[in-house]
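Retro notes, item 3 of 5
We never archived the inputs for the 2-deoxy-2-amino glucitol-6-phosphate complex last cycle. Fixing that now. Sequence and ligand:
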Amino acid sequence: MCGIVGYCGSKPASDILLEGLRRLEYRGYDSAGICVGTESGFRIIKRKGKIKDLKSIVPDKPFGVNGIGHTRWATHGGVTDENAHPHTDCSGKISIVHNGIIENYMQIKERLLAKGHIFKSETDTEVIAHLIEDLYAGDITLAVREAVNHIKGTYGIVVMHNDHKGTLVGARNGSPLILGVGENEMFIASDVNAMISYTKQVVYLEDGEIITITPDGYRISDLYDKKINKAVNEVDWEFESFEKGNFDHFMLKEIFEQKESVARGMLGRLNLDHATGHLGGLNMTSRELLSIERVIIVAAGTSYHAGLVAAYLIESVARIPAGAELASELRYRNPIIEKNALYFVVSQSGETADTLYAMRELKRKGAKVLGICNVVGSTIARETDGGVYIHSGPEIAVASTKAFTSQLTALYIFTLLIARMRNMSFEAGSDFVRQMQALPSIIDKALLKADEIKKLADKYSVAKDFLFLGRGINYPVALEGALKLKEISYIHAEGFSAAEIKHGPIALINEETPSLFLVPDDRLREKIISNMKEVKARRGKVIAITVEGDSEVAQIADDIITVPHVEEYMYPFVMIIPLQLFAYYTALKLGRDVDQPRNLAKSVTVE
Ligand code: AGP
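Structure as it came back at the time:
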């Protein structure tokens, strides 16, 4: 949830730490700080607020040759200067940054208080600094190893000791930690963004690993000090892709990248000659794929909504029972694992704690679990039995957009693959392949309505409540539209199946609460039109996203946004575009921090 970064080398550390934090800011942005090793000891600068606020109190002249930094998403203790990281021990010789939650910190704190330790903050993290102090006897790596054997919970930590200049010690359990290998310099961070402009050579740490870093080397070991040799991986994302380019916000850039990201997600995966899909990373034989009797998609947030769309498609097209589950609920529900069931865990970041722990629980129960991830080398991608990278490119804005359509692309290709093994004919398969190949240009057409959508967003941005309504395969798209508006405009919005509102939510309808209907020209069009009329009958304002030329819908609705016609199952790719833009322009109109909305973070690495 937080972003941590560390550097040791010969370049001025303060600059590298601040640039690293700027790139990690989407992981948490309520307070930040750095600790830099200097001849005269540690220089700790921290405060509540954004990285630009921290920068304003850091001397312009870069300094130090090693240090650690942190950008926070508060879990324990309010958003204050004192609770900002780094935290130190009583002597001030030990400094630490932490991403995660220490569940038994109160027990440890009471024991240390009884020993006379004095605490300066309300955080769980500071307890680790004092615990290391309590265990330290000259070997900082040993003290960190002993300390993590005492703590319960999740952590990615990086520690400095003033008597060990130029050395950093890191440890992980549950939260991501990546080493960046440079020329006579080393980097360590929560994700590759923080170091990609300096090195693309990275080593992914696993749970239970401890690393000791100096400018010219590193040693990785387990909790029993057994040395571990690990592969150095090459990151294949470009530095530029982490920049906004000519866009005002990462969210707008990522919405407009969907033509390319969907096309990239199909590359080499659609085979017109055999009218089927190809996903090399599944690690399953055709016989194993044919023996699948149920598909369950497990995820959180936007990824869960993509899972709901895919479950609908798998049942309709591949005729296999399918469903989507909230990871946080499935984990504690003691689920029944069927022998021939296949589980997909879907996660853009590949680090979401709810999804990660649900995956581990399913694997403990013997389930076959595949991953659908965007971030290469992420924990979920590394721990699943196989899976698909969606190749969306870096997604920086907290509100997920292009990852949604890229997740759909992967799941649609999977559906085509297993459907062609069952009931789907060559002709139907060819048609499905052609429909998918047409999507990038159709998405481009839908993006052309941006200005029109901006006007509508400006008009309706005064609303306090909003309903999003869809049916069938577009019901989850309505849920996603509501989530987008909620998370960046802070307007209360709910998604419903359009038919469901007459069982209660229609009581919310009044002239101040607009209803946005998804009205594709499919089998349910007439039904949705009746639902629109039910809302109009109660003087509710109706916006309809419909197909060009649908005059009947245009007559009923107060406002319409048109999208290109596509075949029934392809509408989620098209209907979502106006919903993403509507949320973006509404948040813009309300002056919200679009890329870093309040109370949120891009990768939710705590439960
Ligand atoms: C979506 O806009 C949110 N950022 C959030 O709901 C997100 O989808 C959820 O936290 C899951 O993230 P993941 O795909 O990285 O696992």
